[in-house]
Amino acid sequence: MAIKVLVVDDDKLVRRGLISFLPWQAFNMEVVGEASNGEKALEFLECNPVDLLLTDLSMPVMSGIELLRNARKRYPHLHMAVLTLHQDFEYIQEALRLGAIDYIAKVQMEEEQYEEILGRIAARIKEDRNQRSVSLNPDQIIAENKQGYVLLSMAHETELNWPQEVNLPQALMMEAERNSWVWFVKEEQQEQVVEVLMAKAQTEPESVLLVLTDIAGCGWKDLQRWLREYREQVLFYDYHPDHNIRTVSILDEPNIPAGTNELELEKVKVDRLFSRWFQNDRVFDGLIQEMKSLRLPEKKLVGFLYSLVIEWNRLFAGTQFTKIQMIPSLHSWYQVELWIRKIRKSIHGSVGPSSHSQEILDCITKAVSMIQEELSTQLTAAELAQRLNLSRGYFSQCFKDIIGKTFNEYSRFIRIEKAREYLLNTNHTIVWIAEQTGYADEKYFSRIFRESTGTLPSEYRQTHRLN
After folding, report:
1. Quick one: which of 83, 94, 99 has its CA closest to 163?
2. What is the mean pLDDT of residues 384-390?
3. How many domains does the chain have?
């Protein structure tokens, strides 16, 4: 079987010279492709079987060193050699550390030396082939196996090097995508493979072992696509660290849920903001399941959670309710649920047990929302109490108990905070800002603002914009 060669160099004349000048046929070698940089070389490797990668070290877009590093992870059985100049000695050392088996200098070489180097490379590849008879064609590998084993990490930001730590010399491993590797083994070796990979999955944080069945007849690109969709649409929501070993048929297409409309999102958002979810266990568990059932794509889920955090902190700024911090990282729904439960516990700690009924809790949080939404109207406690069907005295007492401020204290605080926002982020006049925050008299607004902040509105705008 001929040794298939890919030549990579950014200089087209050098590539053509090497392809035409080197005695490939004398050593049963065949140049099957060429590329001008590392990225194009990786694209070629994804679609074509290659036995020997011969690459320059200094190239634009992706250097030869980066190409060697990527190829080593994705195609551990690919042989690699480097093209170099004499002054690239440090790069040659790095290339050898990354697995290059030899190097060819571009200048000052005689034909006999080329033959010596190619012969040395060919002998090394032949020796490895004798030890390993498995083809490097991904589609052929899949066709010869009934199942595969995928070890993956749910984390995005951590670069893991599991293949180097997993000692399975008789198994063929390929990288499906970042932090995701597929092993293919003969039937008689499966027990050993499962044992080793299960142990790895149990010790590595946020890792999952998938046993893929019914893979025969599936192409490598189809397998990569299926794995990516399964990870994003199924595993993201089903992952749990106590159940991180799963057997899945490749014939089961990931169930893509219908798009969630804005009304559904708004309903969950309103329920999430108001008090019932952190006071009532049954309501809380129901809300968690309702949010999960939406099965939002990861990016949309992140945006949705951000909007909840911003809205909560806006509504309850200046109250005894705790300020919510956005989830620091998000790899699975399991993390989201832990984060929400932590928030609930924190809110419980900030307000303590309530002696008020659930109905009163809901009324007061609705009052907070009304104040926020109707800032340009100077609402009074009597008006809100009437709209909520409560007596003024009872409403005022409940408001202070639950929010931690009197109605007037909270109302003034929230109006001044909104005024600060307008002063810093708009060029509207002080008169306009006063009207938008419920003050018909500009002078009265300025006096209240100075009492609250220590400066007049115009001074606040000038000082803080300079800072």
Report:
1. 99
2. 91
3. 2
Q: Are strands 147-153 and 207-213 parallel, antiparallel or unpaired?
A: antiparallel
Count of Cβ atoms closer than 10 Å to residue 196 Cβ: 17
Cβ–Cβ < 8 Å for 10, 37: yes
Range of the domain at 212: 138-249
| Closest among 236, 222, 155 to 182, alpha carbons compared | 222
Residue with tokens 């969950």: 268
Q: Are residues 177 and 236 in the same domain?
A: yes
Per-residue pLDDT for 166 more than 80?
Answer: no
3-state secondary structure 288-312: HHHHHHHCCCHHHHHHHHHHHHHHH
Report the alpha-carbon distance of residue 53 to residue 58 in Å, rounded. Answer: 15
Q: In sequence order, what are the beta bridge partners of 87?
A: none
Q: Are residues 24 and 83 in the same domain?
A: yes
Q: Which of 230, 249, 268 is the last residue of a domain?
A: 249
Altogether, the residues listed in the chain come to a count of 467
Q: Is the pLDDT of residue 352 over 70?
A: no
- pTM of the full structure: 0.58
Considering the domain architecture, whether residues 157 and 66 belong to the same structural domain is answered as: no
Is the same domain home to 198 and 232? Answer: yes
Whether 347 is covered by a domain: the verdict is no
CATH number of the domain where residue 183 is located: 3.30.70
Summarised one tens digit per residue, pLDDT across range 190-226 is 777 788 888 888 888 888 999 888 887 788 888 888 8
Residues 6+ apart with CB under 8 A from 238: 333
Nearest to 375 by CA among 345, 318, 422, 414: 414
